[in-house]
Amino acid sequence: MKIMVAIKRVIDYAVKIRVKPDKSGVVTQNVKMSMNPFCEIALEEALRMRESGLASEVVAVTMGPSQCLDTLRTGLAMGADRGIHVDSTSALHPLHVAKILMNLVQIEKPSLIILGKQAIDDDCNQTGQMVAGLLNWPQGTFASKATPSKLKNQAFAPTMWWGFPKDKSNMSQIGKKEYTHGTMKSLIDVVLDKEKEEVTVDREVDDGIETVQLKLPAVITTDLRLNQPRYATLPNIMKAKSKPIKKFTPQELNVEIKSDLEIVEVTEPPKRKAGVMVSSVDDLIDKLKNEAKVI
Amino acid sequence: MVNRNCRATLRLVTLINRQGHPHPPLSSSPSGHISHSYIILPFSIAFVFLTVLCFYSGTGIDACWKQLQRNNVHGEHKIVSFFSPLASSLKTRQWGVNIQSRCYGSASVLVQRNPKFSKLNDEDVRYFEGILGAKNVIQDDEKLITANTDWMRKYKGSSKLLLQPRTTDQVSEILKYCNFRCLAVVPQGGNTGLVGGSVPVFDEVVVSLSAMSKIISFDKVSGILVCEAGCILENIISFLDNEGFIMPLDLGAKGSCQIGGNVSTNAGGLRLLRYGSLHGNVLGIEAVLADGTVLDMLKTLRKDNTGYDLKHLFIGSEGSLGIVTKKLLQEARRKLGEILSAFEFLDSNAMNLVLNHLEGARNPLPTSLHNFYVLIETTGSDESSDKQKLEAFLLGSMENELISDGALAQDINQASSFWLLREGIPEALMRAGAVYKYDLSIPVEKMYNLVEEMRSRLGNDANVVGYGHLGDGNLHLNVSTPQYDDKILSQIEPFVYEWTSKHHGSISAEHGLGLMKANKIFYSKSPETVKVMTSIKKLLDPNHILNPYKVLPCSSIS
């Protein structure tokens, strides 16, 4: 079974964002760029599925200018088998991305598409849903850590996820996941059933956790607490250098990049004003009534 | 010529004696009397000194002047040669060289030979020949001209003696004798200075270090070079080129300037922009003080925070505090050196401690437990090229089996979680119970041997953890026990200090001495050095009110 993971190159999460003086966007020159954190989690989930034997191949897809190849290489260094780079210098909005993914699916024919729930630069949270809509596939969005999900005939190795020794200290580092032989008590949130061709996803929604069962092929978007992405180790970095990367352009995929959206202005959020010290409760009530107008 | 000098000298001496000019003490230690050094000072400072002296012995002025006028006849018209072109040009034509001299008559600067300095006599020359051998005692006029004249041919002295010692002990003997006899001395290296600091003003004895030109050792692991003061800079540069290292100092005069002179004048040069001044690059100095004491501040360690850092006094002192005979330099590495910004290591015990006691600490290489972990950080202006360099270096090291596994941080978050592992060790140690902390500078090859020896000494009583700045040769040895226990302390100290001292390390690489190691400075510093430190302390804080009981041993302060 093939899994396709889409990854996006964005401004690094830890960088302080600055708005350009002409308010047309944010400063991206000489700013550290890296993989979208949610895309990292998506890739990690795909790799875990492959390591458990449920999937045979993980393909990483990225779209954008040639610098995106760095991010793609990182994805390959984490463990993806192949890479696809869709070369485009114009800005790609979620609908374009979804259309490109739809056409790539016709070529690659994966059974599962895993994406991050949103990108940290535009916070759209649209691509996964749009892809599912275009392909008419079921979707399980905001997949997250949850209570133990229902178990079916599992075809994965019960205790050794990454080949760890059963060392307590190591175990405590990997996000508190415990695996015990035989009793099948696991906290995995996305449970893939190979035979029945279904995937059970625990979704983190406003009301709590919703469990859905999806028939494959399906689209999953990952939320923050699903897993902790692995580091790119040196042997994998070495192997990544020889992994193939296929190149496409949007034209080849019959997708027209026509933007229906125009960004008019980008401004910083208003600065937080300093707090005011009040001298008594009456003063507080007075301020709440008259100035803040909340009572 | 010599005979005439003799007579003049005698006359000068007797005259001064008669006037009751106080003889300065002949064997004072440098403490508190640094301004009264017996080595000749550059002429402007000498001038100040002279006026002060004249004030002290008012009646002495006339005598001095008369003597000097008489000296004119004998050829010692120092003032005249400075301030009158005529006489000097007369003089120079004798040797067939037309040296253009400048006239400083307009300046109100009059340098007069300080009468308290003795004149050279035969006995002195014979004594020097006894120390150095006749070959190294030069009175030949031609050789003396080059020693007497500076590179710009602006200043000319009239020294009659050039000495070329070959060892530090010989320099020490020379200075001891000159101090006793009150003979002024000019230390000279390549004589490429541009302010007349390296040539005699009058008849000072020139001590040239050109014969001490050996490169003593070069450690390729740490990039530390030990050489004698007379090494010519160009020779050092080509030697290091062969080894694949860069000298942090480079000047136009490299063909003739000597490293001892560079250090003594704190030379800047072409590469200061990148590598900083010699204050940062010279790790240690061996210097001979005016009274012949040899101060051995040579430590082949990148970091040493035991006591006052005396070597900085000598860097830039221009030969007025001591003659520098040997020095230690830090070289820049070529391969990853220019972007390397941190090189830390931790052992498996440290890693386990952090993973167990700190939340949020994540093992970057969970598949196997390793004995040592090294954290490398690079900083540069071009991220992609730096990343390529680092990857190439790491992959190369893996192929050469220098490293068994590694993880590369892909974004800032991963980088900070790597740093948490290293920076969180002290905190994890605090949470684990009581900790005995030692901060030692040890040669890199032997660094971990101490940890292993401590482990075998303490056995199961304690958890011995080693980590630190591997790139600087700085080990942080920590012994973690559930509670503080004197028995364990006695097992650790003084063994740790003795071991470090035996391997020529420093008992405090960066933490300093404070109260904990106040009486332990002798493990890393020689008694003479500590004596100079206590004199500086007495000079600046005579009542010892500042931070008492700390840093320097109580026995030497009181």
Automatic annotation (TrEMBL), chain A:
Heterodimer of an alpha and a beta subunit. This is Electron transfer flavoprotein subunit beta. InterPro entries: ET-Flavoprotein_bsu_CS, ETF_a/b_N, ETF_b, ETF_beta_N, Rossmann-like_a/b/a_fold. One of its GO terms (cellular component) is mitochondrial matrix. The lineage of its organism: Eukaryota, Viridiplantae, Streptophyta, Embryophyta, Tracheophyta. One of its GO terms (biological process) is fatty acid beta-oxidation using acyl-CoA dehydrogenase. The keyword ATP-binding does not apply. Keywords: Electron transport, Mitochondrion, Transport.
TrEMBL record, chain B:
InterPro entries: FAD-bd_oxidored_4_C, FAD-bd_PCMH, FAD-bd_PCMH-like_sf, FAD-bd_PCMH_sub1, FAD-bd_PCMH_sub2, FAD-linked_Oxase-like_C, FAD-oxidored/transferase_4, Oxid_FAD_bind_N. PROSITE patterns: FAD_PCMH. It is an enzyme of class 1 (oxidoreductase). Its EC number is 1.1.99.39. It catalyses: (R)-2-hydroxyglutarate + A = 2-oxoglutarate + AH2. Residues 155-334 form the FAD-binding PCMH-type domain. Keywords: FAD, Flavoprotein, Membrane, Oxidoreductase, Transmembrane, Transmembrane helix. One of its GO terms (molecular function) is (R)-2-hydroxyglutarate dehydrogenase activity. The chain crosses the membrane at residues 38-58. One of its GO terms (cellular component) is mitochondrion. Its cofactor is FAD. It comes from the Eukaryota. Belongs to the FAD-binding oxidoreductase/transferase type 4 family. This is D-2-hydroxyglutarate dehydrogenase. It comes from Arachis hypogaea (Peanut).
